[in-house]
Amino acid sequence: MSVNLLNAAQFVYHRRPSSFTDFLWTAWLLVPSGIRLKAYQALWRFSVKHGERTSSAMVRRLVPFNIYAKQGCFDTASEALATQYVLENTTIPVPRMLDVIALPSGKGNFLLMTGVNGTEYGPTGVTLDKMAGNQREVFTKTLREWFDQLRCLRPPDDRTISGFMGTGVSSHRIRWPDTVGPFASQDELHTQPFCQPWEPYDDALRAALEKRANTQYKICFTHGDITPHNILVDENLRPCALVDWECAGWMPEYWE
């Protein structure tokens, strides 16, 4: 297994200045990346002392702004590009990517993004079976609409299984932070050890394996890490944003 780092320079801020704030940010991005990084890291240190924790030690809200930073991960450049792609090609509410800078240590990138409305669904402690009927209907309908949009995005290749930019697949299900692949076909993916069940297995699992072997699945754009912490909801538990696209890629339709 290996880690395929993307160059931070592959990220380009996509937004035509439509306000004075946009104009200032576009101008700020002309400042050398080393200076920008020092400014961001100073805000990070200030926020550690005076801000609130998030569910991840690698993510921090940079107070007093509604801006979030992420560092110490291996695939933040890929995450930025995938999130930007979703923002521009769907109506799914996601953060707007602002900046990506390579860390001097060579261990990943520093990612800057806007905040989005909502709070993490996980800490609410309200499972689907405990939701009111109308809440559950809205929750499932919204997520279904989001997934349908993702599945309508055409892959670069109808056969290849890969990360968003054609690199290896990042997945907490397999091994993190290492990547696997890319794979030229579903058959190649399914021969990997992580796709093999432990023996002994029953008739139902044997039938499922036979079905998988005889089915050509559609390759879909996949978030890759749908957990309660990555779904943001409003006070009525209506999903209002989907975050953390670091595992996004082109996977078989059953993956998500």
From TrEMBL:
<protein>
    <recommendedName>
        <fullName>Aminoglycoside phosphotransferase domain-containing protein</fullName>
    </recommendedName>
</protein>
<dbReference type="Pfam" id="PF01636">
    <property type="entry name" value="APH"/>
</dbReference>
<dbReference type="InterPro" id="IPR011009">
    <property type="entry name" value="Kinase-like_dom_sf"/>
</dbReference>
<feature type="domain" description="Aminoglycoside phosphotransferase">
    <location>
        <begin position="78"/>
        <end position="252"/>
    </location>
</feature>
<dbReference type="InterPro" id="IPR051678">
    <property type="entry name" value="AGP_Transferase"/>
</dbReference>
<dbReference type="InterPro" id="IPR002575">
    <property type="entry name" value="Aminoglycoside_PTrfase"/>
</dbReference>
